[in-house]
Amino acid sequence: MDVLVCATQVPFMRGGLEMMVENLVDALCDAGHRAEAVSVPAAWDRDRLLDAATAWRMIPLDADLVIPVNFPAFYARHPRKVLWLAHQHRAAYDGLGQPWSDIALDDTSLEMHRQVVDWDTRVLSECLARFTISGVVAKRMQTYNGLSATPLYQPPPLADRLTPRRAGRGDHILCPTRLEANKRPGLFLDALASMRTPVDAVLAGKGSLAEDLQGSVERLGIAERTSLPGFVSDAELVDLFRNASAVVYAPYDEDYGFVTLQAFLAGVPVVTTDDSGGVLEWVEDGVTGLVTDGSPDAMGRALDRLVADPVLAHRLGAAGRERVKDLSWEQVISTLLGGAPS
Amino acid sequence: MRGAAAAAPAGERRVLALLAAPGTTTRAVALLGLLGEHADIVSWHRRGDVEPHAVVATSIASLSVLRSIPPVPTAVWVQHHEQIDEAIAAGVTLLLTARPELVARGAVLVPPVGIDIDRWPAVAPLVRARWRERMGLPASYVVRVEGGVEPEGGERALMVASAAVVSGPATLLALALGTPVVTSVDTARRLGLRPGRDAEVQGNADAALKVAEAIAVDAPRAAALSRRARRCAEHHLDLRRPARIVAERLGLVGSSLGPEHLVERRLRELGLPVSSPTWRRVDAALAGLGVDRQGSLT
To answer: A85 to chain B, minimum CA–CA distance in Å?
Structure first.
């Protein structure tokens, strides 16, 4: 079967979505299909928001099946369209009112907003089947567009290399994330500062907040035990996961969150917040990790608890691994293709 | 087939004759109102020396008259399968019907009670909430409208309401706007609404209000009802769509063959209103290609 994976390209950006598309194309090819990614650049500012959407309606897509994965790639026009949605344009949905949403209450914003929601609903209705990368993404579509979708979970990058350490306790707390506001890396530093047990910590990743966060480390007095290495290689990341006593991952209303699954595959429990969205589909308080209210004190206490009790940390991490170990690309492919039977 | 329709040359206004059989004229009134945007409408019986470019007949009974006229594109209302066979044998260009079950045989659905959908934007519950926020209205805002709609206040209320208890003619507008609707048994029957799908249906006013209040605080339910209400209006109650088909098939408007019309068609599929800022973006893009889209909208 010839399959086109349709995605939106944001020039000069690379993150979880790009990895997901590459992995999906690879998995389709491994399953014996011809597959390629098709991407069209998009802009997220309000006035140009629907330019790429309009373009997608005109693009000829000669394939047996198309699988769009995000806004506005799901505007692709094809009789056999199976959605696997990573996210809609969140600034027009759950992100309304957030500082990063430019859809306000003026006339132009309200009309653009009306049109985005109306169009999204129409083109999402065209799909032969609708899947989402997580339950939280499916719930948003149900809430705002009145359309149902089924969560379809994927294994995270490095899944085949992440295994639990053989013995011993972890020697650091890890927070691997892009250093951007929606990922809230500052919460991690605040939590470290409020811990009673001083432990080494690593905040790995790069982003626009890097300089500010370095300043926070100095200001909070945790510079001696906190490392901000920036970008780390895959091999380094695997080591960091494997030797962590806990992983902190506390983004705001995350769509999915590969970090959670990577931590679990390494047998490491995750500390998160009760507003972290898709992360909560995996982190169950006291079962696979610890869920806090997001205050520095609560997060610090959770980390103290895991550092002080390696047996508990091991038990939670093992339960997390058990929960994710069966995720496979084979299952993803068969489900997606099954959504559009010949 | 009678009179293949040649498209109207640019700038020329065509003449459409109405051939009305006794007792059947009302079914054509709303449709002709929209076709009047494209053509001059004359009565067949009072056309004088005017030679119409096309004919709309309200009944198959008029076919005997049509057989005696020069071959021009002709549309005729049909009510059952036998009439379709008869009309096809007579060579009419287009079949019109109020019966959904005849659409499968190629007839164009002209709802007996309909609305010009292009005039009304679909407003999803999430967007309604933003409008209420701007207007200082409560987060949950249920309105009750019976009979007709006041041009200003009534329309606006239906446009921003979380849910509405509506009966009578206002129900058409509420559905077109994508308002989550609770309506009466009688209205649902008249409009052919499917209870629980196109709208919720309740037998008494108190129960209807309670249901509307429940919908107003149930976002997924409101979103689903809103979506289906709009689709119902588009697919079963829209007069603009059949008017567009009739105008094109009878040759009352110019042909839409150029690439710019393909863009237009794609955007129409998405229900883009004429007033949308997105048209300006499209115009700007097409202007760079030397295409003048001005005036091509209907």
So the answer is: 18
**What is the topology classification, in CATH, of domain B14-110+239-249?**
Rossmann fold (3.40.50)
- The alpha carbon of residue A260 is apart from the nearest alpha carbon of chain B, in Å, by 28
List domains and CATH numbers for chain A.
Answer: 2-154+328-338 (3.40.50.2000), 172-324 (3.40.50.2000)
Question: What span, in angstroms and rounded, lies between the C-alpha atoms of B288 and B291?
Answer: 7
Cβ within 8 Å, pair B127-A114: yes
Contact A145 B223 (CB under 8 A): yes
Chain B 91-120, residues with CB within 8 Å of chain A CB atoms:
none
| Helices of type H across A31-106 | 51-58
Classify domain B118-237 by CATH number: 3.40.50.2000
Average pLDDT over residues A179-200: 94
- A122 and B270: CB-CB below 8 Å? yes
Q: Do A110 and B130 touch (CB under 8 A)?
A: yes
Q: CA A243, CA A257: separation in Å to the nearest integer?
A: 20
Tell me the C-alpha distance between B65 and B43, whole Å.
13
Write out B68-96 in H/E/C secondary structure. CCCCCCEEEEECCHHHHHHHHHHCCCEEE
Please say whether the beta carbons of B123 and B177 come within 8 A: yes
Q: Is A167 on the interface with B (CB under 8 A)?
A: no
Structure pTM? 0.85
Asked whether the beta carbons of residue A115 and residue B126 sit closer than 8 angstroms, the reply is no
φ, ψ (nearest 5 deg) of residue A3: -125, 130
Highest average pLDDT, of B66-70, B94-98, B145-149, comes from B94-98
A97 contact partners, CB below 8 Å, separation of at least 6? none
What pLDDT, in 10s, does the model give residues B166-186?
A: 999 999 999 999 999 999 999
Backbone angles phi, psi at B104, to 5 degrees: -60, -20
Q: Which ranges of chain B would DSSP assign to H, the alpha helix?
A: 26-35, 63-66, 81-90, 125-135, 153-160, 170-176, 185-191, 205-216, 219-232, 240-249, 259-269, 277-287
Distance, in Å, from the CA atom of B237 to the CA atom of B111, rounded to the nearest integer, reads 6
Residue A97 at interface with chain B, using a CB cutoff of 8 Å: no
Q: How many CB atoms lie within 10 A of CB A305?
A: 15
* Residues 6 or more apart whose Cβ sits within 8 Å of residue B140: B162, B213, B216, B217
Token pair of B57, please?
Answer: 């007949």
Interface of B with A in 153-192 (CB under 8 A): 178
DSSP string, A198-233: ---EEEE---TTHHHHHHHHHHHT-GGGEEEEES--
Kindly state the helix (H) or strand (E) to which residue A16 belongs, with its residue range.
helix A16-30
With a cut of 0.90, is the ipTM above it? no
Q: What is the pLDDT of residue B292?
A: 42
Q: What is the pLDDT of residues A148-168, one digit of tens each?
A: 999 999 999 999 999 998 878
CA distance B123 to chain A (A): 6
Nearest to B127 among A117, A122, A143 (CB): A117
Chain B residues within 8 A of A110 when measuring between CB atoms: 127, 130-131, 134
Cα B65 from Cα B52, distance rounded (Å): 14
pLDDT for residue B66 is more than 80:
no
Predicted confidence at residue B1, as pLDDT, reads: 45
